[in-house]
Amino acid sequence: MDKITKYQNLIIQILEEYASVKPANLEEQEYQVIADTKRNHYELVSMGRHKNAFFHNTVFHLDIKDTGKIWLQVNNTDWDITEALIENGISKQEIVLGTLSPNLRKFSGYAVA
What we know:
Blueprint: H1 3-19, E1 29-36, E2 41-50, E3 53-64, E4 70-75, H2 81-87, E5 95-97, H3 102-105
Parallel strand pairs: 4-5
Antiparallel strand pairs: 1-2, 2-3, 3-4
């Protein structure tokens, strides 16, 4: 299995595991894993109704860039998804925190680009 396929499978697995836990306070919430393995874009979205209002939110957004590095584009939780990547054998030098400005990435301990 090549590196990109390994990363694709791991990202999808992590997103599916996170989506399997349903919050108790949002009974009408649904998680959807969006995986574009051709262009290497991956998202977990939550959607549903709360107090008669529809919501649709990006929970996580990750990309695998042409460089072969995983870019964390969005994390709208307090859970550190990069730790799950690291626990599964991905080095910090293969992960870019796209949520940080380029000037701050050099201080993150992760890849800069």
